[in-house]
Amino acid sequence: MLTDASSQNFGVTWSLLLPNKPTLTATYGIGSSTANISGTDMESSGSNKTLTLSSHYKLAGWDMYGAYGHYSSNFTTPAFLTGTSQDFSSNGTQWTFNTTHKIPIDGSVSLGWSHQSSSNGDSDRSAGTSYSASAGITPFGRLGLSGSVSYSTNGAESLAYSLLGPAAGNIQLIDHNAQTLFLSSSASLYIVKGLSIIGHITHRQEDYGLGPISDTQYGGTVSYHAAHRFLGSYYISGGVVDNANKLGNTGAGLTGTVGMDRKFGHWNTSADFNYMQNVQTLYSLVTTSNMSYGASVRRKLNQSTYLSLFGRSSHSGLVTVEGTNNMSNSFGASLAWKGYSFSGNYSASNGAGVLGSGGTLVPTPIGPVFTPDFIYFDAKSLGVSASKRFFRKLLVTSSYSQVKSSTEQKLGLNANSGNRFSVNTTYTFRRVSFVGGFTRSSQEFSTLVGGPRVVNSYYFSINRWFNIF
User: Fold this and answer.
1) Cα–Cα nearest to 171, from 149, 152, 156
2) Which parts of 104-194 are beta strand (E)?
3) Which of 3, 117, 162, 389 is the 20 to 30 Å CA partner of 396?
């Protein structure tokens, strides 16, 4: 999607810091944004206000922190994204309190409490209350032990906020009375230089309206970091996770990371591969997995020529609901030579996401766990650019980009495609800059009849800077 956007933000922070007294910090911020869809009269707009009050104090060895936060947001999305123009509005309040205290055996204990309430458009809803407690000790330098427990009276809302933040205020939830309880413990042992192992056990009890669930998860990880004269810097880690309930083992997963940075002659290279089995244990024990891998090479060909290439890919493995996986790929290259520079990039992504109140589509394969309002998306983009500086004062840049995207929700499939070409020149004479250029945009939407919309624009400006003081 091709847009012309503008935004304004303002924020102010004030603190009261008195010796041996509780601190007080207040932060207030407002913001707004608008985006015009090129070639149409469609416009998206949003605004938000936030107020945060926080305080910190130490009393009898307890390090205490409390905060109050209130937000309100409004967003209007254009019809091409969801099939019809939608207005989102939400506001919410959150209270939090956390405290920690040192305990024997080089350890500490912490307690936490939070309460959230929010409303969106038509209805009020309570986010409920969450409680947490954790403790950790170090019997000796190489061994660490820890344990925690958490309970929430509205797990669906708490999970939504943990993933989306205030943007979760407008989405529909599956259940407002999902109570969740989690207990976990872990141990870490540093064996020798660069080598360590970590093990954990987690137990959950939850009910999201689909029936009570209770099971236990076991896991362990081994990691090793080192540097070698011939191999360069490299790191390796791996682990295993096992799930079990009263009926027996219900599945197992692996985690692993391999990476290295190495110089081959004049080439600087780096590469890595990551597999992660994501286990959400704060408000829901949902098992998903994701893998990503990428590489880059860089070289100075001569005193005036530089080349770099990169590629990156990531995609889902295990998902909670079939068909809600996510994928993204990106590739690029750049070349600089005697004042010329050239670059190109390509990216593609598709999957399932949740539209937040700020207008951002957040990819999340566990969305169906707490809300039915998720959107399928598919997007591709291609871009190339070139620039040249003449006589040290004249800079000419040119770029071309092409995009294709589609979204699908309950109201049907919406697709759009477009391209943009632009040329910009900047000439600097002492303290004066002369800027001019041309832009041509073309965009087409499946929800609008009449074929592609084409917009040609020209611009010119003169700038001069001054020393005021």
Assistant:
1) 156
2) 107-120, 123-140, 143-152, 180-192
3) 3
pLDDT digits (tens, 9 = 90+) for 368-390: 555 556 677 788 899 999 999 88
Q: What is the pTM of this model?
A: 0.58
User: What single-letter DSSP state applies at residue 339?
Assistant: T
Residue numbers in the chain where pLDDT is lower than 70: 1-5, 36-42, 77-86, 88, 120-127, 155-178, 207-211, 225-232, 239-254, 277-288, 317-324, 354-374, 408-414, 447-451, 468-469
- How remote is the C-alpha of 190 from its chain's centroid? 31
- DSSP code for 166: G
Q: Tell me: the pLDDT tens digits for 96-106?
A: 999 999 999 88
Contact 406, 423 (CB under 8 A): no
Whether residue 298 contacts residue 271, with contact meaning beta carbons closer than 8 Å, is answered with no
DSSP 262-286: EEETTEEEEEEEEEEEEEE-SS--E
**400 with 384: CB under 8 angstroms?**
yes
Both tokens assigned to 111? 């307690």
Give the closest residue to 120 by CA, choosing from 69, 171, 154, 44: 171
Tell me the chain's radius of gyration from C-alpha atoms.
27
Q: If you count them, how many residues does the chain have?
A: 469
For the record, the structure tokens of 158 come out as: 């708490």
CA 236 to chain centre: 25
Q: What is the DSSP letter of 161?
A: H
Tell me the C-alpha distance between 393 and 391, whole Å: 5
